Amino acid sequence: MKISKDHPRYRSLVTRERMAAMVEEGNVSTTGLIAHGRGEAFDYLLGEITVPEAGLAEKVAAALLLRAKHPVITVNGNAAALAARELGDLARATGALVEINLFHRSEERLRKVCDFVEKEMGMKVLGREQDAVLEGIASDRARCTSQGLLAADVVLIPLEDGDRAEAMVKAGKKVISIDLNPRSRTTLAAEVAVVDEITRAVPNMITWAERLGERPEEARAVLEAFRNQDNLAAIMRRICVGLDQGAADRSER
Ligand code: ATP
Ligand code: MG
Questions:
Q1: How many Cα atoms sit within 13 Å of 239 on the Cβ side?
Q2: Average pLDDT, the chain
Q3: Quick check: is 210 in a domain?
Q4: Ligand 1 center to residue 218 CA distance, Å?
Q5: Distance from CA of residue 55 to its chain's centroid?
Q6: Is the dihedral of CA 25, 119, 34, 140 positive or negative?
Q7: Model confidence at 149: pLDDT above 90
Q8: How many domains is the chain partitioned into structurally?
Q9: Beta bridge partners of 71
């Protein structure tokens, strides 16, 4: 479909086309499209921009990944479809390993997503052979690798489900989420919650990782000063104020 660049939702429409094509290729599941729609709704309420609080969380997230001993980035179908290449650049900039973890897992789909991500990233990923289990999750969604997720001290989990996020926290990992819903279980479980659209969040995190990589003192200081709960509260206020303002504008008309 040809989409006019003048359309106010141009970016969102192009992304939808991309997601639909990824379903046809078998990288994204059909319910992944619904999860994407939930994200879009929150993005709409945030004005489809990186709000300042999200920008700060992205800086802190980069610092946490840089200071980790064994950082891992987990990638599912939606994250692969939207930002595989950029997540690879972030892994390189922070020394993180990448592990594929699918919500709707089948051997065939796992192979497909691993192949796709390795091609996009130009590097090897973990997850093809899952030799470990993350405690506290029913079903084969618990499967992971001992070298990657199980050994990680810090895990970046873009667009992750709440069950798995909570299980990672229980297992003692520091979790960084990228999730547009400021009230999702994933966001609430995270030590650093990035409430931003993944295609905006990851490039910002790469920029910060490159800068803070050369300034370890600053990385330590931003981590120390960060208050995740206050930051999240400010984002929720932003959404409420925006809606209130919209309601006021309407009643004046
Ligand atoms: P939870 O399980 O954490 O309570 P959920 O069940 O509402 O959340 P899931 O489908 O498990 O949601 O996870 C997908 C999450 O990813 C959603 O919270 C959605 O808002 C978010 N999301 C979807 N697309 C994007 C995107 N492009 N960028 C950032 N976040 C997104
Ligand atoms: Mg969920």
A1: 20
A2: 96
A3: yes
A4: 31
A5: 14
A6: positive
A7: yes
A8: 1
A9: 154
